[in-house]
Design goal:
The chain is of the alpha+beta class and 96 residues long. The protein has two helices and six strands.
Length: 96
């Protein structure tokens, strides 16, 4: 089973979290320098080839000095690993 510590060691991101077997990594940006959310997904796939990508995207927000990564422009990837069974329950994934 993959741990949050292993995810932190394998990926370069600003924030890392895990809940019910779903890992979320976020990388903030002010300028994209040609990168996209898809390039962040590819980085996750390179680090963890067996990962199942559940969600990814790009969030644009106006600059606010001192804001957390979740409250500024960032890319995010939510992923899990095979053998973890999830179903949709509204906007959240719930372990079956």
């Amino acid at each position: 089973m993959t741990t949050l510590k292993q995810v932190r060691n394998a990926l370069s991101a600003d924030t890392y979290s895990a809940k019910n077997g779903v890992f979320t990594v976020r990388r903030g940006f002010f300028y994209t320098h040609g990168r996209t959310a898809e390039s962040f997904v590819e980085a996750v796939k390179r680090a963890f080839p067996a990962a199942v990508i559940l969600d990814s995207g790009e969030v644009w927000k106006a600059f606010r000095g001192g804001a957390t990564t979740a409250n500024q422009s960032h890319w995010y990837v939510k992923f899990t690993f095979p053998g973890t069974d999830y179903r949709w329950s509204g906007d959240a994934r719930v372990r079956s």
